[in-house]
Design brief:
The structure is a single chain. By secondary structure, the protein is α/β, with parallel strands linked by helices. The chain has one domain: Transcription Regulator spoIIAA, CATH 3.30.750.24. Helices cover about 40% and strands about 35% of the residues. Helix 1 links the parallel strand 2 and strand 3. It starts with 7 loop residues before the first strand and ends with a helix.
Length: about 120
């Protein structure tokens, strides 16, 4: 379900014991509704160590932010860890504007998340 078309997709893989979900395309109300169950299932595992790679996301709206918050809460309920890989300054600015920058561990690169 991951391709280069302008819609959206999620590809999940495990790297160094860390579950990495790469999201591509627009993370809007339509996409959030379609992928929320898949991301929820990743948060249901024991003590999840999850990285959401958003480098290929081209658009993020309030539904996308809501999805991120929901995923964060589900991971924390299981005493897990959620990290976001974000390189787009617009998304970082959006997190600051809605006062969520401290709610997420944000990385600029995937390497530190899977190195250990």
């Amino acid at each position: 379900m991951f391709d280069d078309r302008p819609a959206f997709g999620v590809r999940v893989r495990v790297l160094g014991g860390v579950t990495v979900a790469e999201v591509a395309g627009e993370l809007d109300i339509f996409a959030a509704g379609r992928i929320s169950a898949r991301l929820d299932s990743l948060a249901r595992t024991g003590c999840p160590d999850l990285v959401l790679d958003l480098r290929r996301v081209t658009f993020l709206d309030c539904a996308g932010l809501s999805l991120l918050c929901r995923l964060r809460n589900r991971v924390l309920e299981r005493e897990g860890r959620l990290r976001l890989v974000i390189v787009d300054p617009r998304f970082l600015r959006l997190l600051r504007m809605v006062r969520l920058e401290g709610a997420f561990e944000v990385l600029e690169d995937l390497t530190p998340a899977v190195a250990g």
